[in-house]
Amino acid sequence: MAQNTRDLTEGPVWIALARLSGPMMLGIAAVLSTGLVDAYFLAKVSPEALAAVGFIYPVTTAIASLSIGLSAGAGAVISQALGRKEDDNDVTRRGLHALGLGLVLATLAALIFWLADRWLLGMLGADGGVLDAALRYTPLWCVAFPFLVSMMLINAVFRAHGNGGTSAMVMVASAIVNVATTPVFILGLGPAPELGIAGAALGTLVAMVAGSGVAFWLAWRNGILNPCTAPLRNLWSNVKAIAGVGGPAATSNAINPAGMALVTAAVATVGANAVGGFGAATRVESVLSVPLLALSSGIGPVVGQNWGAEAHDRARLALKQCLIFSVGYGLLVALVLTFFAGPIATAFGAGEESTEAAASYLRVVGWSIFGFGMLVTGNAALNAISRSGHAMVLSVARVLAIYVPLAWLGVTLFGYPGILGAAVVANLFGGWAVLVAARSVDLLETEFVGVAAPARVVPG
After folding, report:
1. What integer pLDDT is reported at residue 457 of this predicted model?
2. What is the sign, positive or negative, of the torsion defined by CA atoms of 339, 48, 118, 195?
3. How far apart are CA 324 and CA 53, in angstroms?
4. Greater confidence, 69 or 175?
5. What are phi and psi of 5, to 5 degrees?
6. Mean per-residue pLDDT for 121-137?
7. Side-chain-side CA neighbours of residue 235 (13 Å)
8. Does pLDDT of 459 surpass 70?
9. Which residue from 48, 197, 52 is spatially nearest to 121, judged by alpha carbons?
10. DSSP assignment string, 75-104
11. Residue 163: which of 4, 380, 1 has the closest Cα?
12. Using an 8 Å Cβ cutoff, are 158 and 166 in contact?
């Protein structure tokens, strides 16, 4: 095993999870805070700019799920290879092949979005000044996307080697650049021109270029992505293995923001202010979910290395500990939001109606965040053992069978509150479904009624 690799198959499981997830909390919080910075300063530009981000965010997040899926694929094959104690050159090749695959697919995805942005955003309900504002954002974001993918893939390689600290450091560095440049470009501070919503995209571009450069330099310096012998050896088999996990994992991650785009279209029937408030609330929710997202980043390498080493009991224990944490933390967040949703929403609402929409979302949907946490950690564990198909099925069912239909039915019958009820039901379903899926592949041992009955154990 390489010198810069931590063996996650030994020692207490909770310590391994903490070592990976702890730094990632800081890294993910830093990255997600950039969305809040965008929303805060765009709210000062105009309601149209804030509403435009509400339409853009689900689409760009869905496209960015390509990088999340590829990262899951790279992390799974590399961590399992490390657990099997494979040769260092073989492990390095997997990382290089993942990076090459990611850059090719990211470039194609960015080109397609650049060509179809007007049609796609228009289909979601953006029009008039809101659509014009959105179209000033998308070209620069498309240029930034390949840099985002390369940064995320290299970070996934670091985590697969048990090095969560370096991955988090790259994310923090990129976020610092983004937070520092975004208000300058949006408001035209100092010598910079006032670009409005295009300034938010330019800040993202600058940050992604810086982050990917730092990530590649650190990976080279640490010997994780150094040149290896026969760099094209096993190219096709490695690409198939990465895509075999990455494809379903990308779908699992894309389906939620894609569903959010469809739900945003339902919210748009209420009005642009509701869209702005809904978008602001989902950004706040993302920041509050940082510990859960960090745990989903940390559990993958732990489960992957132990599954590769045939230490299945340790992999099961890692998932169990993450699920328990998700429930406890989620309920704590819900309690806090019950009392402080109003002040939080006020900071990011562009008007009275947007603020009230955001506050209502936080108060109601906050009580189901624990289900979302169970879903993301469970999906990450399933991806780590190359069972991403199971994660994809439950994610698609949660969004297409539960969230989207109930959101449209709810908004038709009850208006905006119907959207909130649909979100709660979808999160609760996700928590239950991941228990069933994990038990079905022998990653969870439980005989709870409602979890054991639908599941059939399939040897891993």
Report:
1. 55
2. negative
3. 34
4. 175
5. -105, 135
6. 84
7. 10
8. no
9. 52
10. HHHHHHHHHTT--HHHHHHHHHHHHHHHHH
11. 4
12. yes
pLDDT, position 132:
86
The residue whose two tokens read 């040897």 is: 459
| Residues whose CB is less than 8 angstroms from the CB of residue 143 and which lie 6 or more positions away in sequence, other chains included | 110, 205
Residue 154 amino acid letter: I
Among candidates 396, 353, 307, 448, which has minimal Cα distance to 51?
353
Residue 459, SS3?
coil
The token pair that represents 19 in the structure block: 């070592």
The first and second tokens of residue 103, run together, are 């850059």
Q: Is there a contact between 385 and 460 (Cβ–Cβ < 8 Å)?
A: yes
Helix then strand count (H, E) for the chain reads: 15, 0
Contact status, residue 170 vs residue 214, Cβ threshold 8 Å: yes
H helical segments located in 161-289 = 164-187, 197-221, 235-268, 272-288
Rounded Cα gap, residues 285 and 426, in angstroms = 15
Long-range contacts of 332-337 (CB under 8 A, 24+ apart): 333/288, 333/366, 333/369, 334/366, 334/367, 334/368, 334/369, 334/370, 336/366, 337/288, 337/362, 337/363, 337/366
pLDDT tens digits, 181-213: 988 998 888 888 888 888 888 999 999 999 999
Amino acid at 169: M
Tokens, residue 345: 């929403």
